[in-house]
């Protein structure tokens, strides 16, 4: 186990190095950060002086070397817009994004298993057919469209829910600014979390359904029927448990992908998380923040994949993560 | 049981003892100011902040005249001197009284600011005559002293003097980084900054010692949320989560106007949108007949109607109506037959190939406008290769003069006609900075001279004649393709009387805002 974690740590470092090199090499294509820092009538001469001062005129390898040297000391650069260390800015925005992901995960856990299992057991039931139809729509409609539709229906027309922002927050453990524990915060979370879940949930429903249907066809399930076991025991203990294995693998990866979808959801809802921050950073050509964000997201992917592998090893005794 | 009742009682008492925030204005613009330092970046956001937290010497009114603010009156003493008499009893947020010393301090700081020093280039000094009198001195006769004085928001000189606990000079202007002034501010305006989370929310409280006791404004607190996405901002207004929102995209104007609980205010704007034609890159464009043909071929009134949904005014010159240089004789001149005839006369009946670039997130409907113009030019056989891109990538391309046609919009920082020509149409000159945004390389010695001379003429009628002459020449020589002036729109919940505080410069005077 320990050796496995150490190896994973090494891989994480390599992944982050590659990401930093890639994001560093595209930053010249993003535009000129100076344009966002000065007014329109400032002369090219002054802009060039500033560029020189900020070290933006240095050769690529010099800039990258300087970045790496600072990065190993935990300094990922200073955001041009926020005028604070990029890592601090991201850490400030992270809680909002995690609230959103928790909200969406809640909907996924609540609905994916019952609906998926039901659709597998009773494929011809009208509810299964409706659920499958809706899930196709959910997968195909882009998340920002769902979001705008929800805002217009529930905030503008019906006036039940707030249209943007995060609402009241409370400080948890001195660091975690969360909206999960206030009524106003939960109201604000409702629409964004549903929007975010709307792309991932259908995927889970369909995956659980197809896996479960496959499992129901296997010999040992047929044997269980022949033994005359109660149908609930067959579905829940024999079949469903074995359905979960691929779901965990794909689910872990999806969790990482969800972080990508937060960019769209947060932008539409003006949700002050790190996805919204990232899109803004691109518009402002805030390159240190862009690079730092990509590195952090890379880290999140590596961590979720590692956790998934560990869980997989626990669920399925046939798999030994240590490779013995 | 008893404990519960006591607890409930305590909570109720607490709830009632909270001050009633009867007049909280929930405000949403598309962006929040980048810094609390009002001299760090010359941008709309900075000026909006300045008018909330500070007060200028004098300010523009809705008729484009000047009202005295912390200066109660002003007069021209001689060709190079304008005297400003300051109001007595004007308090800074720190509690200090404002004097001439603070004005002189602010003037020097503006002269040192990379972004603002361009506006003050003709000014040599701010001389303190006594505690309540300041003379602004120019290097020659200068007609725009009042225009420039609207940029002087006196800062608290003592607040910005010395070092803070981290050893930084409090007055220092830092462009890319943290400074004392970028997070702290002491000014004389109607609001103080209560809290600020950049990009998320700024809360302003009414300043209790505000000097302008006659102001009708009754807003005691402003919660300002930047909402980047147009649909979200409009939805927030329609659902009542926001009291005052701007800008409003053209597609939502009708809906907000017809909606019961919201009011819309529009004004014809001052930002001119144009295409420049690069005479150095494409020899066809050096031919005046070809340039004229292009202007005749572009149906800018149609663009305003169809693409801008009448949310703009078709233009035939740079200066909007109300500006000194506005030439009444110049009208949009769409005439396709004439355009074709001119192309034939110029020897380009078969047309030519040209490249075009435009941003896609800088001006209202910019990419769609560029597509329309490219389509219109196809009718006179100019085959346009159009590229649109986000503004972050567009500006470096613009600096490279990377296409034959490039879109540029311009708003005059001085609200004066000469500023357009200085940046867009004068012969490009690295030394002086004139023609910095003249990607067409248009050059006319007479225009250059007229603009340079106009900067020394204080006789308004004579100056107007010179500036109108410039517009005439640019029009006749088809120096650029004029499209339209973008309109401005603001919207608010009914009962929030924004119509009296908004202005064409787009810095609403929220200190004077009345809400029911």
Account of the 3D structure:
The complex is a heterodimer of chains A (about 325) and B (about 525). Chain A is mainly alpha-helical and about 325 residues long. Chain A has a domain at about 85-145 and about 200-325: Orthogonal Bundle (MetI-like fold), CATH 1.10.3720. Chain A has helices spanning about 1-25, 35, 45-55, 60-70, 85-120, 125-140, 145-155, 185-215, 220-225, 230-270, 275-285, 285-315, and strands at about 170, 175-180. In chain A, helix 5 runs parallel beside helix 12. The longest helix of chain A is centred in the last third of the chain and has 39 residues, at about 230-270. The model of chain A has no long low-confidence stretch (mean pLDDT about 85). By secondary structure, chain B is of the alpha+beta class. In chain B, helix 7 (about 290-295) runs antiparallel to helix 9 and helix 13 runs antiparallel to helix 14 (about 460-475). Mean pLDDT of chain B is about 90; it is low at about 1-20. Chains A and B meet through helix 2, helix 3, helix 7, helix 10 and helix 11 of A and helix 5 and helix 11 of B.
Topology summary:
The complex is a heterodimer of chains A (324) and B (516).
Chain A: H1 2-26, H2 33-37, H3 44-53, H4 60-71, H5 86-121, H6 126-140, H7 143-157, E1 170-172, E2 176-178, H8 183-216, H9 219-227, H10 231-269, H11 274-283, H12 287-315
Antiparallel strand pairs in A: 1-2
Helix pairs in contact in A: 1-12, 5-6, 5-8, 5-10, 5-12, 6-8, 7-8, 7-10, 8-10, 9-10, 10-11, 10-12, 11-12
Chain B: H1 2-17, E1 24-28, H2 44-53, E2 58-60, E3 66-68, E4 71-78, E5 81-86, H3 100-112, E6 123-130, E7 133-138, H4 145-149, E8 191-197, E9 201-206, E10 221-224, H5 230-238, E11 244-245, H6 253-258, E12 262-277, H7 288-297, H8 300-306, E13 312-314, H9 336-345, E14 352-359, H10 366-378, E15 382-389, H11 391-400, E16 405-410, H12 417-424, H13 445-454, H14 460-476, E17 480-493
Parallel strand pairs in B: 1-10, 1-11, 14-15, 14-16
Antiparallel strand pairs in B: 2-3, 4-5, 5-7, 6-7, 8-9, 9-10, 11-17, 12-16, 12-17, 13-17
Helix pairs in contact in B: 7-9, 13-14
